[in-house]
Please model this.
Amino acid sequence: MAGSGEPAGLHGSVLDRLGVLITSGELAPGLVLRIEELESRFGVSRSVVREAIRVLESMGMVSSRRRVGVTVAPRERWNLFDPRIIGWRLDGAGRGEQLRSLNELRRGVEPVAAALAARRATPEQCGVLTGAVMQMAVHGRSGDLEAYLEADTAFHRTLLEASGNEMLGALGDVVAAVLAGRTHHHLMPPRPEPQAIRWHAEVAQAVQAGDAAEAERAMRDIVAEATRALSAGGQD
Model:
């Protein structure tokens, strides 16, 4: 925790800065981090640096060994599903690679979740899906992308939960990170495509009707549209 007299958010700021440096490769795998150097670099106390390092270690991004110190870990050891790591990668030079990877995951997961939701969704979940689509339509017309993102995120989180599969439901934060990345990195049109909203409506209707094949088909259309938008975005 931050020492006395230090802002409460200081540790989080240092954590974010270190996270971006590691995910971008500026702090390369195998590099040994010196606590004293980090104190000087960020202008914070040792306790703040140690807390940030502790969190990074819990995420698999660094390892600590006696007489060696804190070493940056290779990517294959990171918890790549951690929303913070996803966010840091989206903030760095590898944004395009991260978005492509996430979108490929969506292609393999969300159509399956939609089909399962058509069999397992509760009436309450069907209501949330329908309400989210209505909000997407309203905010899509007005061009309020933040409000649209909130509704879109609620739709996809609910769909994953409605699959009745706890592993799929646990991917809600991952899909939310994809949607937020498109919006916050200007990969969305000024006004969302009406056809994309219609596909969301078709998923909601198919889930409510118990039509697994139609729910899966419409969700494939949604993810395919996101893939096309990503390809056209020209990210690095």
User: Anything to note?
Assistant: The mean pLDDT is 90.
